[in-house]
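Journal club side-thread
Mid-discussion, someone asked how the predicted structure for our own chain would compare to the paper's figures. Pasting it here so we can look after the session.
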Amino acid sequence: MRENRLKSKIEMAKIISISPRLLDTLVQEGLVPSIRIRNRRLFEPEEVIAALKEGSAAPKKR
């Protein structure tokens, strides 16, 4: 049975092996999908991983 549970920023960062700060950057740039509920930002792991696999989640060069 598949666990379909939203993950916190820290949990999601651990799952994809990046820092929470980099995850914040990817969210701010609109490259990683997330859900905001009041003051919490939550992530659907499958959607985040799909965005990373598509290559759409590469941080923009400044």
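Post-session note: The chain has one domain: 9-54.
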